């Protein structure tokens, strides 16, 4: 039973990443009608935002410390991070240690700008083109972004450790402990998901966007520049994917191909949830994450070897055979 509950927790943790990426994908498709195969690259860039901030905070100056000498008696050069020089050793060290949570604040404007630049510079030219063209150009963009990250940061994974206070374990259920950062990641994902839904549901901007998703032409006839709002939604979708990448960094060290690793799975999640359905994307993300983790139980793998590698695709096949529009798909979308 403990192993079962742990796998449920693993599934919710992994499903939170699936749900955030799929939520961003659905936002883009629901507003702009674009199938964005570069969305996994945005997840990767978010993870490398935390790597970038970590390196910036660790920039150091060399000073000579007369109290420390080498074996010849010469004073040693000591590297002191600028942050510690400016704020003192204690506060500066704390800032460096908490670089991953601070990367959330760093990643939001960066991802908003990248999303805006992608939409204005490339995506807007493919709104009226077939979905096959959209897939090809965004997939090509994903490869370009992947290679840029590889050239700048190298091919090896880069560790972005969680703060010491959140690197231990917590007791989530009586007798069951779980890594603290994974709990934080899950709770953070719920907050982001709730924030996106609240923004769309209760703000004037969100209401206009939802109206534009339902009937773009009518909203345009009312004198509202819906295109600008849809561009903002592309930036928001990029920020959601980037935040997912930041929080997933301590769990899986950022590497240049992590976007591609999540891309196919996130599209499966979107299709299972229903193209254009935001609640469906979130529900399918958590559902498939839990099923994938349960399929990794030793008793399941011993009975059906390799089932954990294909369970998501099997479930997708069954759901699409019984519900061609997905769990919560709307009529007319992609038809």
TrEMBL record:
Membrane-protein topology: Multi-pass membrane protein
Family under the similarity heading: Belongs to the binding-protein-dependent transport system permease family. LivHM subfamily.
UniProt entry tagged with the keyword Cell membrane: yes
UniProt-listed InterPro entries: ABC_transp_permease, BCAA_transport_permease
Top-rank taxon, per record: Bacteria
Gene: livH_6
GO-annotated molecular function: transmembrane transporter activity
Organism encoding this protein: Tropicibacter naphthalenivorans
Localization of this protein: Cell membrane
One biological process term in Gene Ontology: amino acid transport
Transmembrane stretches, start-end: 15-34, 95-114, 188-209, 229-250, 262-287, 299-321
Entry protein name: LIV-I protein H
Keyword tags: Amino-acid transport, Cell membrane, Membrane, Transmembrane, Transmembrane helix, Transport
Any one Gene Ontology cellular component term annotated for this protein: plasma membrane
Signal peptide: none
Keyword Cytoplasm: no
Pfam families, A to Z: BPD_transp_2
